[in-house]
Amino acid sequence: MNTPPSPYQIKAFTHVAREGSFSLAAKVLGVTQSSVTQHVGKLETVMGTQLFIRRRGALELTRAGKELFAISDRLTILEQLVNEKISDYSALTDGHIKLIANAPRPAMPIIAEYGKRYPQVQIDFTLYDWTTAMSLLNERQVDMAIITEPPQGDSFVTHELRRSRYMAYTRCDHPLAKRNAVSLKELQSETLVLPGDGSLTQRVVNSKIRKHGLTFSRILKTTTFPMVKEALLHSLGVGLLLENSLYPSQNLVAIPVEEMPENYRDCVVIPKDKNDLRLIKSFLGVCIELVVSEEKRAG
To answer: Which of 25, 72, 198, 269 could covalently link to 14 via disulfide, CB atoms 3.0 to 4.6 Å apart?
Structure first.
């Protein structure tokens, strides 16, 4: 009869899968890296299969690893919920939230405000393109995400934060800067600056271009939103981005686009079984409070 895996092996595996690193998992667990490596190695021996593909500088879950993580991560969440029920709820003195987003805003202001209120809670924040962000959510690699137009699903809890439309961004000294509106047809003579492959913006813009039978001979694709902003500030072209997706700059203006009147939802998306975690609820509370505050100022 095979020896069943120990709770330590399961915990070590789960944290390595979460963090994408043996060293980071060891740091979170407060043990040595060799201990984590040994636990995962023994679990692979018990299961008779490889759980990670070890590439240079990165780890990738195998099919068996993904299937196990989908279950073991839920067990870890249940354990965390039990510990929270037992512990003192009076204050958040520590903790860790893994957060991703597909644009700097509205995520950045929320993180800043949360950090002021709960300075002992560590937030790991990374920007990804829309496609990658949704993949990480589906694979349970993160605790929560701030995503534009997330697909509906039974495994997630979604809270809408705001709605915004696409705008043409350009320097304030550009010939179009004084316009009240601009058409995509007019922008054909400009260099179009867009986020990189996998972004929701590229999908939306390409769909609009096809729908209206337009041709853009010069499109500059950048890897990140900060790069989009730098390109615009250096007069490399006109950007098509959701309103308020970049931190305001006195050197940039946003102009409504006639063919793009639709509003798109920015949402907080949380795996359903993580929704009741104390840290997640505290972060969501700050999100909602800031949204209400913005609505009052706008009204």
So the answer is: 72
